[in-house]
Amino acid sequence: LKSGGASAAPTWGTDTGGKILGMNSVTYDNTQRTVDSTTWFDSGMEITYTPTASNSTALISLFGIAYATTGQYLYLELRQADAVWGGGSSGGGEYLGMIRGNSPSWANISVTWHVSPTWSAGTQTSFQIYGMKHTSSQAVPYIGWGDAGTKGTYTDGLIIQEVSA
Hints:
Layout: E1 20-29, E2 33-34, E3 41-49, E4 57-68, E5 72-80, E6 83-86, E7 94-98, E8 105-115, E9 125-133, E10 142-143, H1 148-151, E11 155-163
Antiparallel strand pairs: 1-11, 2-10, 3-9, 4-8, 4-10, 4-11, 5-6, 5-7, 5-9
């Protein structure tokens, strides 16, 4: 069923794309990543996927928790090998401002990139999350809980969905 617009009746029609062709997910239980660099570094978060179509796009989502104190900033970028698909060194990355009053605090984070990766149907590829902090003078922020002993458990993760072109 397809919309005919604001004042037109809906009609039956053929699917014109945009459907999910496949997906994969990966989780990291209680893994804390220290973000103590003002240059991009590999966070260790990676997801692999084998696409079913070469001309498809991807929705790649990061979910997790981060720790910071007043005035701290965390930048993230999505890479496929050496290609930057989200964020980027020259653009400053995907900015996550961590302003939590006057004391340190944990906060949920969520970022989704919609990209047209370089990939071939049937050939596995991988994507990595890189991070950096804003300035060398800021305190150290963290991605991931990493403290199951006193604060309970938490899972960070990545999800990839292949979307038809």
